[in-house]
Amino acid sequence: MNSGERILKFLRSYTDKHRRPPTVREIQRAVGFKSPRGVSYFLDKLEKTRRIVRRGRSRGIFLAGTEGLRREPETAACFPFFSAIPAGRADLAETEPDRQLAMEPTLFGLRTPDRAFVVRVRGRSMEGAGIRDGDLAVLEKKEPKAGDVVAALVDGEVTLKRLVTERRGWFLKSENPDFPDLTPRRDLEVQGVLVGLVRRWKD
Amino acid sequence: MNSGERILKFLRSYTDKHRRPPTVREIQRAVGFKSPRGVSYFLDKLEKTRRIVRRGRSRGIFLAGTEGLRREPETAACFPFFSAIPAGRADLAETEPDRQLAMEPTLFGLRTPDRAFVVRVRGRSMEGAGIRDGDLAVLEKKEPKAGDVVAALVDGEVTLKRLVTERRGWFLKSENPDFPDLTPRRDLEVQGVLVGLVRRWKD
DNA sequence: GAATTCATTACACATTTGTATAACAAAAAA
DNA sequence: TTTTTTGTTATACAAATGTGTAATGAATTC
């Protein structure tokens, strides 16, 4: 293995382990050069061949493109995923999720996934809002506002609808003319407010 | 928000974005100190209260404990994210991504994110297919089939369109009557095939 | 009100860090 | 063989970097 390859390999392992790039002299020691210039020499070549990217002064050596920083960031977190919202169970926190999904909370404007959960959308009643059958809906447990899309438990059934305010109170609006709106007879229990959507594409 | 909190917040966002900790002076500029000493002053406090860990000399400031080293589920992986596909650059692997996004490849039917990348959708030309302005499109570099939604480089411009076959060859179809279809004059370079969509919900 | 702590700044300085120059041997090309 | 390229080292140095000292005003405590 030549020096360039060894440098790349060390770059990979060091960055992975320490969560920041090494310095030229750390590379020097690891690869066995007696002068930092040897490292710079190869870094120049690796940069020309686009194997690495350099920015900033200190610790600015990154693996290029998709190979680079393919490391796990600290930002990912687990979201509980329910294939179906269990009807009649008001508190999802007490329900065992079917699995966990790892995603960055920031993707949906969340700092933590603490109050969030994911369910699969069933049916086409929200197609007008860009929500399709089979989508994964990311919901946050919080106080809903008028206009929010919410997962609600209405008279024993769970649905994803837009929460609309009216003279007489709330009702749940479909965003598809083929589906009726819902006016809760008695209770309206909001399970969560829609904050994101994940869709696997398959035509 | 006090200075200590602001420093932690910047630490979080900078490390997240640049994949390495910032320097004291970078923190200084971001938080608005006029001297680097102000930062050091708070770093000392944050270290004493175990909010951060310091090691090495340059760029050695890490968020401490569970926050910094929050473990990933084994299933998460990093996708390179490009805020815009650089036109004229056929190989995205050679381009430095703007940041990395952590998600499970399996969400999109992928085993690894090796050939995948993420870009933000611009414009409404694919609204008919349920793809909205601002969505994150997950694309995989692979041979496109007829009917696939692809990110393509047509005559120097990058667009997301449906690839359709015709007697005379390929063309790119918009899924919005307000937008024209594209018939590539010369070259048609497919950057990737749509495999998923991530949307942050904000009405 | 006085004393003390806290938050901040200006300045300084030893190290660290990246890279340049020059030199040299080995390998490859001519 | 001579020339050129490649890989490496010793030395040097400017810029970056972390932190120390002293000073200052504001807030807090006594």
Sketch the major β-sheet of chain A: 8 strands, mixed
So how many helices of chain A?
A: 3
Overall shape of chain A: it is rod-shaped
The helix-strand sequence of chain A is HHHEEEEEEEEEE
Distance between the termini of chain A: 46 Å
What does the radius of gyration of chain A come to?
25 Å
Features:
homodimer, 203 residues, alpha+beta, Arc Repressor Mutant, subunit A, Umud Fragment, subunit A, eight-stranded mixed sheet, two-stranded antiparallel sheet, rod-shaped, DNA-binding
Structural notes for this entry:
Two copies of one chain form a homodimer. By secondary structure, chain A is an alpha+beta fold. Chain A has helices spanning 3-18, 24-31, 36-48, and strands at 52-54, 61-63, 77-82, 99-103, 116-120, 136-140, 149-154, 157-166, 169-173, 188-200. In chain A, a hairpin with a 2-residue loop joins strand 8 and strand 9 (169-173). In chain A, helix 2 (24-31) packs across helix 3. The longest helix of chain A has 16 residues, at 3-18. Chain A is rod-shaped and about 80 Å long. The interface between A and B is large, with 51 and 56 residues. Strand 10 (188-200) of chain A pairs antiparallel with strand 10 (188-200) of chain B. The first copy, chain A, binds a DNA duplex (30 and 30 nucleotides) through residues 2-3, 23-25, 33-44, 54, 56-60.
